[in-house]
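Ops channel
N.P.: pipeline sanity check, posting one input/output pair.
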């Protein structure tokens, strides 16, 4: 059950309104997470800027796979529904690839290295080993790419933690619980 209400359009703070309106236009509706997050223009707009910047990092399949892996580790059911939906409809990942990403892997060897590394970053709170770093570099990722992976882990963790704290009503199709995959 939500721990705070999603804002109605007339309740959105003026400083959050342009950002929320842009998301609503692009997505076609206002997700409950965003209508809740918009209560803090500082936090909401900062996240939106980070999201926009990181949407240029890596490729969409890798970004969504990282989002799925991180959300699985962080136990964020809201984000799992969002990333499962976007992975299917935007990244065009097959259902088995979505499940694989939630487990921290991918069919593509290069993407697999990125997703495994991202999972290790979140599980170890960044205390990865030299071997972990070597593996992602050997898969073809530059240090700049590795920094982007770390930034994606942090950004996805922000929304995971936000959603775990405030538990907005789910407005994307439900996914199989983690224990069942």
């Amino acid at each position: 059950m939500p721990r705070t209400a999603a804002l109605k359009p007339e309740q959105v703070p003026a400083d959050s309104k342009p950002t929320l309106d842009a998301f609503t236009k692009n997505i076609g509706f206002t997700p409950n997470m965003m209508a809740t997050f918009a209560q803090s223009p500082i936090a909401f707009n900062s996240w939106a800027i980070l999201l926009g910047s990181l949407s240029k990092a890596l490729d969409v399949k890798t970004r969504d796979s990282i989002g799925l892996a991180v959300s699985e580790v962080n136990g964020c059911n809201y984000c799992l529904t969002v990333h499962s939906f976007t992975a299917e409809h935007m990244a065009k990942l097959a259902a088995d690839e979505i499940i694989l990403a939630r487990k921290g892997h991918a069919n593509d060897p290069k993407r697999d290295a990125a997703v495994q590394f991202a999972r290790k970053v979140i599980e170890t709170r960044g205390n990865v080993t030299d071997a972990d770093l070597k593996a992602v570099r050997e898969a073809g990722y530059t240090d700049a790419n590795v920094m982007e992976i770390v930034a994606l882990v942090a950004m996805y963790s922000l929304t995971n933690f936000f959603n775990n704290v405030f538990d907005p009503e789910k407005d994307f199709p439900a996914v199989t619980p983690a224990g069942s995959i």
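N.P.: looks fine end to end. The chain has a mean pLDDT of 94.
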